[in-house]
Design goal:
- The structure is a single chain.
- By secondary structure, the chain is an alpha+beta fold.
- The protein has 2 domains: 225 residues, Up-down Bundle (Alpha-lytic protease prodomain-like), CATH 1.20.1510.10; 98 residues, Alpha-Beta Plaits.
- Helix content is 56%, strand content 9%.
- About 13% of the residues have low confidence.
Length: 352
């Protein structure tokens, strides 16, 4: 048997998100925009002797770093898409980048909180005429960046993600072996949604691109801090209450820290192969455990945005070919890589 004769049972481990290319281009565009703004602020601050400009430029450099991580993750995942060193493809590189970005976001939150404490203890003179225009300029850049990174189809805002599409690869091939590596995804069958409507949003979370979410949260967090700064500076200047500025910093710290925690939790769950949806896992088990068949071992994990992997070990009094069992999973969306092992167990009925 030559290598070519095995081709019908082979498939590429391509588990990238449906909009991977679009997200990559948008992220690099935001990196470019933010970098130009950072250089302009630092350069202008040095040229005109403005520490406020230099400080804001250095603050923006942290976002440039985080956004660059996101953009590089997209590029690396795409370039190594056929590299067999990655056992299950490069779909999780985005989650690794998202986790790193969340850590940076947490550091930014702590830095803002630290600076706010220092300013409460030792108030500094605020140059309102200079600081407010800088904050307005930063807010403008953040709004443009958020627009570029925002997915107008998926409508994901901050910590909430709602996906309205599915991108599944059909790897339905004939296989006479006991180990089947393919799935039967059907994009238009909503049987699982009908039985698990209460877990609708949670069940679709495996489609979320956490790398894009991390980049989006970074610019939104920066926009929030800019908006808080503008409001606090304007109120402080009008009412002569300088303590409003560090108070706004504390509010920003709490908001950004909360977003960072949510992102760390989501990304780490994927990296640790946590079950992406208990409702989906229960449905798969129900589909497989019929006619006296039992699932002895079962694993469900995320391979990439919109792609799930399944490993199931079946025991049966009347064992069938793997195709028989994978056919039971027809209509369950997102199953891009399914392994089914079948074992005979004549006394299963009496043992049960």
């Amino acid at each position: 048997m030559d290598a070519r004769s095995l081709d019908p049972w082979r498939h590429d481990h391509v588990f990238l998100g449906e909009k991977h290319g679009t997200y990559e281009r948008r992220t690099w565009a935001v990196v470019t925009l933010t970098t130009v703004m950072m250089i302009a602020e630092i350069g202008g601050g040095v040229l005109f002797g403005s520490m406020a400009l230099v400080a804001d430029g250095l603050h923006m450099s942290t976002h440039v770093a985080a956004l660059s991580i996101a953009a590089l993750a997209y590029s690396i995942a795409r370039r190594h898409i056929t590299n067999d060193w990655f056992s299950f493809g490069t779909g999780k590189i985005g989650e690794l980048a998202a986790f790193a970005s969340a850590i940076i976001l947490a550091m930014v939150a702590l830095l803002i909180g630290y600076e706010s404490v220092l300013r409460l203890i030792n108030p500094v003179t605020i140059e309102y005429r200079e600081a407010i225009p800088i904050a307005l300029l930063g807010l403008t850049v953040n709004i443009v960046s958020a627009y570029l990174l925002h997915d107008h189809d998926d409508h994901h805002h901050g910590g909430h993600d709602h996906d309205h599409g599915d991108h599944d690869h059909d790897h339905d091939h004939d296989d006479d072996d006991d180990n089947d590596h393919h799935a039967h995804p059907h994009d238009h069958d909503h049987d699982d949604d009908d039985h698990h409507h209460h877990d609708h949003d949670r069940d679709r979370a495996h489609h979320t691109d956490f790398n894009m979410r991390a980049a989006y949260i970074h610019v939104i967090a920066d926009a929030v801090t800019s908006l808080l700064a503008i409001s606090a500076l304007a109120a402080a200047a009008y009412f002569d209450l300088p303590w409003l500025d560090p108070t706004a910093g504390f509010i920003g710290t709490v908001v950004i820290a909360a977003w960072s925690y949510s992102l760390i939790k989501s990304a780490s769950a994927v990296l640790l192969d946590a079950v992406p949806s208990r409702a989906r896992a229960d449905l798969i088990r129900q589909r497989l455990e019929v006619d006296g068949d039992r699932v002895a071992d079962f694993h469900l994990w995320r391979l990439g945005p919109g792609h799930l992997g399944v490993l199931a070990v079946m025991v049966s009094r009347n064992p069938q070919a793997p195709d028989h069992y994978k056919a039971r999973l027809a209509g369950i969306r997102g199953l891009s890589h399914v392994n089914i092992e079948v074992n005979p167990y004549p006394d299963l009925g009496s043992a049960a």
